[in-house]
Amino acid sequence: MDFLVKFAEVFTGVFQAGGKNLTGLITGILPTLLVLLTTINALIKLIGEERVNNFAKKLTRFRLLRYTLLPIMSLFFLTNPMCYTMGRFVEEKEKPAFIDACFSFAHPILGIFPHANPGELFVWAGISAGITTLGQSAMPLAVRYFIVGIIVIFIRGNVTELITTLMMKRKGAAK
């Protein structure tokens, strides 16, 4: 009988913990995410989608911007998974590298801009848990994570573009 009581307590405890977590999200990060998403959508509407698209086309001309600023802006303004649609502005041989840069930056952006990839917020929560448990601000870590993410996406974008070009040449698809 004690086994059934313990099982029922543990079973119910799982849902109580989930409820506490949900309450924390509703009173914590969700309002921030809603305000950020609303602000970003309003900003795009104010600037104009065509202007945003034209700006993105100009960015793709430069390798440094193509694999740093464009993925950052894509994730910031369009969020995950819509950010990948900005790949339409890059050349065919650059598309895998752009997507790789976006994939690779989907977590480093979370510490500062959680609206960019809210479905993966648990990753940032896990990374920052140790610091917040100590009662310290996680923002210095978030900034470092963001900066390292920019360096990583630039490297990955270039390496992926090189590999794609080599593979396309091997298949006779690239000039």
TrEMBL record:
Keywords of the record: Membrane, Transmembrane, Transmembrane helix
InterPro entries noted in UniProt: PTS_IID_sorb
Entries under PROSITE patterns matching the protein: PTS_EIIC_TYPE_5 (PS51107)
Transmembrane region(s): 22-44, 64-84, 145-168
Record flagged with keyword DNA-binding: no
Pfam name, any one: EII-GUT
Superkingdom of source: Bacteria
Name by which UniProt lists this protein: PTS glucitol/sorbitol transporter subunit IIC
